[in-house]
Amino acid sequence: MESEEIVLYRVDLLEHGSVDNAEIQECKKMQISCVRFLEIVYYKGDDGFILLLNDENNEWINDMFQPTLDAVFAYAKRRFGIEKSDWKEAEHP
């Protein structure tokens, strides 16, 4: 039985200014994926959180596990310059 994935927070690095359109276009030209969207997800029943690194189509590129939400926020700040206040709560139907 699979765990239910719950997206907690999202951020668009293009909107934030951590990546610019020229970088995304350069990645496309080189036929490689650039990270544009970050999502923090939690799987019911699991300990810890997953930081998803997604491309301009919001398709998965990579992910990483962190034991706490604060650790995810700290990594995103260190790696992408994203402050805790920059994250937007994910909308749930």
Tell me what you see in this structure:
The chain has 93 residues and is of the alpha+beta class. Helices cover 28% and strands 32% of the residues. The protein contains three helices and five strands; from the N terminus they run βααβββαβ. Strands 4-3-2-1-5 form a five-stranded antiparallel β-sheet. A hairpin with a 5-residue loop joins β3 and β4. The longest helix is centred in the C-terminal third of the chain and has 12 residues. It starts with a strand and ends with a strand.
Q: Tally the beta strands.
A: 5
Percent helix among the residues?
25-40%
Which sequence of SSEs, written as H and E, runs from N to C? EHHEEEHE
Report the mean per-residue pLDDT as an integer: 89
What's the Cα radius of gyration?
A: 14 Å
Structural class: alpha+beta
Largest sheet: 5 strands, antiparallel
* Strand line-up in the sheet with most strands: 4-3-2-1-5
Overall geometry: globular
Proportion of residues in extended strands: 25-35%
Instruction: Note the total helix count.
Output: 3
Q: Between the first and last Cα atoms, what is the distance in angstroms? A: 23 Å
Fold topology:
Blueprint: E1 5-12, H1 13-16, H2 21-30, E2 37-43, E3 49-54, E4 60-66, H3 69-80, E5 88-89
